[in-house]
């Protein structure tokens, strides 16, 4: 299996409702987010790629136009945790990236800080 990754960065704010008032994440605050998209394919295309990195440009546009310098509470459904953001971006990629043949979106990882991350990776059933 071949795997490639694309890393994007954006700045955004959020607050997490439902936490105790003294919890720092209950207040509006911002992060320098990093998003990592992982794609896989069992074989390479004729050019030797899993896919051309240019095929991932729509994700970069989406991040820039929809997430960057926004309040994430206004963008995604539910508390805008890194876990939910990873799932949101995974679903967006599966629905909107036009990937060739057997190329699959394997996972999306979101980091709020240099030392933390959350990942969404669907369960796979191998027959």
Q: Overview of this structure, please?
A:
The chain is α+β, with helices and mostly antiparallel strands. The chain has one domain (2-34, 50-120): Tetrahydropterin Synthase, Chain A, CATH 3.30.479.10. Helices cover 20% and strands 34% of the residues. It has helices spanning 57-67, 82-96, and strands at residues 2-14, 29-41, 70-71, 104-113, 116-120. A five-stranded mixed sheet has the order 3-1-2-4-5. The longest helix is centred in the last third of the chain and has 15 residues, at 82-96. The chain is elongated and about 55 Å long. It starts with a strand and ends in a 7-residue tail after the last strand. The model has no long low-confidence stretch (mean pLDDT 93).
What's the CATH topology label? Tetrahydropterin Synthase, Chain A
Pairing-aware structural class of the strands and helices? alpha+beta
| Backbone shape | elongated
Give me the number of helical elements.
Answer: 2
The amount of beta strand, in percent, is: 25-35%
User: What is the CATH class designation?
Assistant: Alpha Beta
Mean pLDDT: 93
Oligomer: single chain
Major β-sheet strand ordering:
3-1-2-4-5
Radius of gyration: 16 Å
Can you tell me the CATH superfamily?
Answer: 6-pyruvoyl tetrahydropterin synthase/QueD
Got a strand count?
Answer: 5
Main β-sheet description: 5 strands, mixed
Question: How many domain units?
Answer: 1
Low-confidence stretches: none
């Amino acid at each position: 299996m071949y795997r490639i990754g694309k890393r994007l960065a954006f700045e955004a704010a959020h607050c997490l409702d439902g936490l105790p008032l003294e919890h720092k994440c209950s207040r509006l605050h911002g992060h320098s987010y990093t998003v990592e998209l992982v794609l896989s394919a069992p074989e390479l295309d004729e050019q030797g790629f899993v896919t051309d990195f240019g095929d991932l440009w729509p994700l970069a546009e989406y991040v820039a136009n929809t997430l960057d310098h926004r309040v994430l509470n206004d963008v995604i459904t539910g508390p805008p945790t890194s876990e939910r953001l990873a799932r949101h971006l995974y679903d967006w990629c599966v629905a909107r990236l036009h990937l060739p043949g057997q190329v699959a979106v394997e996972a999306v990882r979101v980091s709020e800080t240099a030392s933390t991350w959350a990942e969404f990776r669907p369960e796979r059933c191998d027959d």
